[in-house]
Amino acid sequence: MDKLTYPLTLQASTRPRTYRATFVQAGPVKARDQTEANWTIHPDALAKAYHTFNGRAVFIDHAQPGDLPSLRNLVGITTGARYNPITQAIEGYIRLYDRDDTKWVAQLLDQIVADQAAGLETPDIGLSIVFFSQSQTRNGNRVTYQINYVESVDLVFGPAANGRIKSALSTYQGERHMETQDTRTDPTGTPVPAPDPTDGAPLPSGLLERLDALQQRIDALASVTASLVERNAISGLGSPPTPQPQPQPRRPVTARDMWTGLDRLQAAYEHLMGLPVHGEFEKLTGIKELYMLLTGDRTMTGRFHPELAMLAYDPNGNNADTTAMAELTRNVMNKALVQQFDLLEEYRWWERVSYVQDFNSLQQVSWVRIGGIGDLPTVAEKAEYTQLAWDDARTTADWVKKGGYLPLSLEMIDRDDVEAWRSVPRQLATAAVVTLSSVISALFTDNSGVGPEITTEGQTAYAFSDTWGNLIHQPLTYENWQTAIETMYKLSQLNVSGRRIAARPKFLLVPVELEAQAIAVVTSDRRPGTNYNDRVPTKRMLPEENVITVPHWTDAESWAALADPNICPFIGVGFRYGRTPELFTASDPSTHLLFTNDVLPIKVRWYFAVSVIDPRGAIKSNI
User: Fold this and answer.
1) HSE-CB of 1 using CA atoms within 13 angstroms
2) H helices then E strands: how many in the chain?
């Protein structure tokens, strides 16, 4: 089912509440900015189907996707539909019903026609046709060559194609009245004053029909005359009159302009998946309803049926196609994945203690540290400057690609298993975050707690070893915390023998078994175990949030002190294609297949590189 919006060409008829209108016109469909969209209505489709526009319901606005039209919004019916070969349009009448609650519609249209006749500006009111059709795609352009059934011709605001009401073809006259002199009595016999002459009856129906027929002939002659003028201009026999453009007021951009049909459906999809959503949209009852709206696959065959898809066509090209289900699922599940990613704070412990960098290629990562240059030498008056000696050190990290997929089956959709559908991004996010956390944790736990081998500064050793001077073997106490502070502070700078790095631990990493003890050790301002309860210097204390529990550490006694990663980074984490995992879906637009083996795979992928940058940035205590 398609929804196609056209400008409303109104002309007041001599019949009460009847208006002439152009229902639909052949040719390219225009977008809101008046550019041509990728959709064309073939003239033959209208010439053969004009009769299907007779007796069609006229509603105020469209029903929302998935809803049926409501009688509450029914205001009229179409009549007298005919195909005009000159304009290649289907024209006819809109006859409004006499309803107390919709009299404002007739009043509104009457006022619009009157304003047109007076040359005044009129609002964007148009006709939107809801119909079933058959189309073909040619060079990326959708061509509708057959209209099978017209469901309704609806009055809407903000038509997509040239959304203006055109000037009436003749001056609006309103309803004519006959003068009467009549005296009536009520049931009590009291005379009732005669009605005002302006409240009389309309002209006889026979005369009205003749007037309408005459008006139709005038319309046809006007079209023929315009065609002859154009031909004369082309052949050089004359020139058409120069049109005088009327100033068009700029219409403010509204939320409706910003949201397409797919946008609203994506918002409904996000709401179904438990994501926070703002804006106006119709809620979905389940995954099955979403699937049928997007694909038209009511028999659950796994194929796209454009003639049955109920998503409204958007003239800007945002209409449903074979990839819509997969693309919407990817977009929504990526948002759900990011939301779940943000919730997994315990497994993102590494973010505060690591140096994190994004890369634009998968070349091997090389972390570079610039060495110190020692003291600046004295420069005598008029003497040359001494060239300073400096050096750098490097460590490398190889890229790792982690990934997998979860299947969303056709059976899951048919069962409308929303909870299982919702769990997919949560499970994928959890798996990805836990995986990266485990890889970073291994820098401290590999090889019985001394970490991986690293090569830097011309030496190869484990991440924690006597080579770097960053390994101790003491339980976590106040005294041993002071030892860790002093050990890190005294480590030598790169390329400057005897000069200390003067860096202090900013974070304390512990297993959950040491969490409470660690907080007591580093946050107390009084030294434990002393007779006078001596005060602890503030610079040797840490805030409680800087005690970080590592979920993967199973050794209940080992701990580590880490420096500020912006000063002396121990952990380096590199990302390619983003700092959160990516989700992908697969579909086959060429065959209209939405599934492979009745399964829509949701694939997760994450590229990252992890290694030690500077062993001086951590002190490890293995017990």
Assistant:
1) 19
2) 11, 26
How far from 158 is each of 12, 130, 141, CA to CA, in Å?
Answer: 21, 16, 24
The residue whose two tokens read 């293995």 is 622
pLDDT tens for each residue of 408-444? 888 888 888 888 888 888 888 999 999 999 999 999 9
Helices (H), 245-378: 255-258, 261-272, 287-295, 324-343
Q: H or E segment at 400?
A: strand 400-409
For 103-178, list the strands marked E by DSSP.
125-138, 141-157
Which pair of tokens denotes residue 366?
């090389």
Q: Dihedral through CA 474, CA 476, CA 480, CA 485, nearest 10?
A: 110
Residue 570 buriedness (CB in 10 A; 0-12 / 13-18 / 19+): buried
Q: Tens of pLDDT along 241-295?
A: 555 555 555 444 333 444 456 677 788 888 888 888 877 777 888 888 888 777 7
The whole model's pTM is what? 0.57
Could you give the CA distance from residue 76 to residue 133 in angstroms, rounded to a whole number?
23
Spans in the chain with pLDDT lower than 70: 1-16, 31-34, 64-67, 140, 158-262, 300-325, 370-374, 390-391, 529-533, 586-597
Distance CA 568, CA 618 (A): 9
Of 40, 609, 70, 66, residue with least CA distance to 361: 609
Q: Please state the domain extents for the chain.
A: 2-178+199-234
Which one, of 38, 143, 155, lies nearest residue 96 by Cα?
155
In the prediction, which pLDDT does 400 show?
96
Exposure string (b/e) for 213-231, b if CB count within 10 Å is 16 or more?
eebeeebeeeeeeeeeeee
Note whether 6 and 89 are within 8 A (CB): no
**Residue of 151, 69, 153, 76 whose CA lies nearest to 109:** 76
Give the torsion sign (CA, 95, 98, 102, 103): positive
Q: What six digits make up the tokens of 502?
A: 């003067």
